[in-house]
Specification:
Elements (H helix, E strand, L loop, with lengths): L6 H14 L4 H4 L7 H19 L2 H4 L4 H17 L5 H9 L2 H8 L2 H25 L9 H22 L56 H6 L4 H21 L9 E2 L7 E8 L26 E3 L3 E2 L5 H9 L17 H7 L3 E6 L9 H7 L4 E4 L16 H9 L4 E7 L36 H29 L2 E8 L4 E2 L7 E2 L5 H4 E2 L1 E5 L1 H6 L1 H9 L5 E2 L1 H10 L2 E2 L20 E3 L3 E3 L3 E4 L4 E4 L9
Parallel strand pairs: 2-7, 2-8, 4-13, 5-6, 5-7
Antiparallel strand pairs: 1-14, 3-12, 4-11, 8-12, 9-10, 15-16, 17-18
């Protein structure tokens, strides 16, 4: 063992131990580590596999370059956001240009470069150590045994992944589905039963499943959580999401609107769409709520509230496509759409387009939105912390908005996708906005299903609306400050249930009126009113109309005075041709919202007739 104490050997071993300890950084901060023993075991096996295949560290040390480069980011995210590099973060890294990174980081870019330089220097010094020492070479016969065991294990795991694992009993296991189960993306994956799984079936061969006793105790999520080898799994997941995104985009790749402005001019013009998140209509004081949650917006001139807007589905990935494209609400449960969004129509009409998002870009609930975001000229996803962990506040969108408004292009469309009031509500606003007490701030991982936290939950939710009010006022202030022709539309993707009265339902996806009834408004500048007085007049005239998120696509294009083939001006509430249409929501099938009863304190939507069947 004395050779292990030689400087080069000891330095190399300590480096590898430090790398392996990265997943346990949260423990140093007093935070739990998921599956710690499994992660540790997988790391030991991974190191053994690398050593067995390459025989000496100098040969596999080159493969560690990505993990050294990513190490500062991994530790930063674990420390401040409670999670490591994810598929979403890889998407941000891959799609952010150096210029965009400079604009986003500002003076901090030099600190980041210094840290990165330190990581590179660390890798070079350990490479030198790996080359100079031969004490860690694996030369004896045990290496052959390890290689055989590795090949056998990989073969067994691959067989089980491809052909599945047999269940212990003959009865198919029943899965308890969460409230939003029918809203989840339908995709081909191995489906686990109580004691087995269905294989991926890539080869098309019809071979028997792996016996239950032969299943290896390998968990892909634990492997992805490990370091440094888990970065490979995250990269594979990123590639899979990119493929899915490409498949969705391919469906509409050749679509064109043939859009143009009806009466184009050279005057600067900006149209802004703010997509809200998990916002309830009745928690806005603009809409009559007793708490003053909208003190800033209440002061705004030229702001027209829309008191009767409903969304057909209460999930972001399904509702947003209906808002920004012509996708019918009753097709919202199906992935993809054969047409592009209003972003492409604006591009065809000569507008420079932006998608600035505080949500994430990849994942089961996000990719169907990202496929439309990809249509924009400038795309920025700024959320580093996901949804359930501490994440960036919506104010992170303000500086990119400022840069967009300063762009010399005269015509601009800007989409701001906010995080709004997404759970955890207390993470959506700073301490200064924690107005109503007691709140969830300061609690470690509160659970939204805990009814004993009803008061805290509701107070934090209202504070998140208060912060949204401030954020929207800042956006309007920037548009006003430009002194140009501009208009802004705000609409939330869906609402939220908050244990109302005796109701025991929280979150969303429960078929309640509070899930479907969303806040919305339109603001316009004085210059916009001078240019389009008739549109403003029709907006005021129809402000109380029965509207749905299906109206937004048509209205947004009409606000820009954009004409295109197949347009339906009867769906635009800023047009004299506007006609109300039948509104359906996803409640036990497609229920007629305007012919429904609202049951109990939960306000569950129950069609008085027979709901239409969902498309499959």
């Amino acid at each position: 063992m004395r050779y292990l104490m030689r400087p080069a050997t000891l330095y190399l071993l300590l480096t590898y131990i430090c790398l392996s300890a990265v997943p346990f950084v949260p423990a140093l901060l007093g935070k739990p580590v998921a599956q710690p023993w499994q992660v540790l075991g997988i790391e030991l096996l991974a190191w053994m596999a690398a050593w067995a295949v390459f025989r000496r560290p100098a040969r596999f040390h080159w493969l560690l370059i990505p993990t050294f480069l990513a190490l500062p980011t991994e530790i930063y995210l674990l420390t401040y956001y409670g999670q490591g590099i994810s598929t979403h973060h890889l998407g941000i890294i891959a799609e952010t240009s150096p210029m965009e990174a400079m604009e986003f980081l500002g003076s901090k870019v030099w600190l980041m470069l210094a840290v990165l330089a330190g990581a590179v220097a660390w890798w070079f010094t350990t490479l030198r150590a790996a080359r100079s020492t031969r004490q860690l070479d694996w030369d004896d016969s045990s290496r052959i045994v390890a290689l055989v065991a590795l090949i056998a294990g990989a073969t067994v795991w691959g067989y089980g992944h491809e052909f599945g694992v047999s269940a212990q009993d003959t009865q198919p296991a029943r899965r308890v589905l969460p409230p939003l189960a029918h809203l989840a993306r339908a995709k081909v994956e191995p489906v686990k039963t109580a004691s087995g799984s269905v294989g991926a079936g890539h080869t098309g061969l019809n071979l028997p499943p792996l016996p239950q006793w032969a299943q290896l105790p390998f968990d892909f999520e634990a492997f992805a959580q490990s370091w440094p080898f888990g970065l490979v799994a995250r990269g594979a997941d990123y590639y899979k999401e990119r493929q899915h995104l490409a498949e969705l985009g391919q469906r509409s790749s050749n679509f064109r609107f043939g859009a143009r402005q009806a009466q184009p001019d050279t005057a600067p013009e900006t149209v802004v769409l703010v997509l809200g998140e998990s916002s309830r209509f009745d928690r806005w004081s603009l809409n009559g709520y007793t708490r003053d949650t909208n003190p800033q917006l209440a002061k705004e001139a030229n702001l027209v509230t829309l008191p009767d807007v409903i969304t057909a589905v209460s999930a972001t990935r399904l509702s947003v496509p209906v808002i920004i494209s012509r996708k019918p609400s009753m097709q919202s449960l199906n992935d993809g759409f054969a047409e592009k969004s209003f972003i492409t129509a604006y591009k065809e009409a000569g507008f420079k387009t932006y998608w600035l998002s505080n949500q994430i870009s990849f994942g089961e609930y996000d990719t169907p939105v990202s496929v439309f975001a990809k249509e924009a000229d400038v795309i920025q996803f700024l959320n580093l912390g996901g949804f359930t962990n501490n994440s960036n506040l919506d104010e992170i969108l303000l500086d990119p908005l400022r840069i967009a408004l300063a762009d010399t292009s005269p015509k601009k469309l800007i989409v701001l996708h906010s995080l709004g009031s997404h759970w955890n509500y207390s993470h959506r606003y700073p301490k200064a906005f924690d107005k109503w007490q007691p709140s969830l701030q300061g609690m470690d991982k509160p659970v939204y299903t805990d009814v004993t936290l009803k008061t805290h939950l509701n107070n934090s939710y209202d504070s998140s609306i208060l912060y949204t009010d401030w954020f929207l006022a800042q956006v309007i202030g920037k548009l006003n400050g430009a002194g140009q022709r501009s208009t802004l539309v705000y609409v939330a993707d869906h609402g939220q249930s908050l244990y109302d009265g005796s109701c025991t339902l929280g979150f969303h996806g429960h078929n309640t009126q509070n899930d479907f009834h969303v806040p919305a408004f339109v603001w316009y500048s004085d210059a916009y009113r001078e240019r389009y007085p008739n549109k403003v007049g029709q907006l005021v005239r129809h402000r109380g109309a029965r509207l749905a998120t299906e109206n937004m696509f048509h209205t947004l294009l009409d606000l820009g005075d954009i004409r295109y083939a197949g347009e339906r001006l009867e769906r635009s509430f800023v047009n004299p041709a506007f006609i109300e249409h039948k509104r359906y929501v996803d409640s036990y099938g497609w229920s007629n919202y305007d012919n429904a009863n609202f049951k109990g304190d939960c306000r569950e939507v129950i069609d008085r007739g027979t709901p239409l069947k969902r498309e499959k």
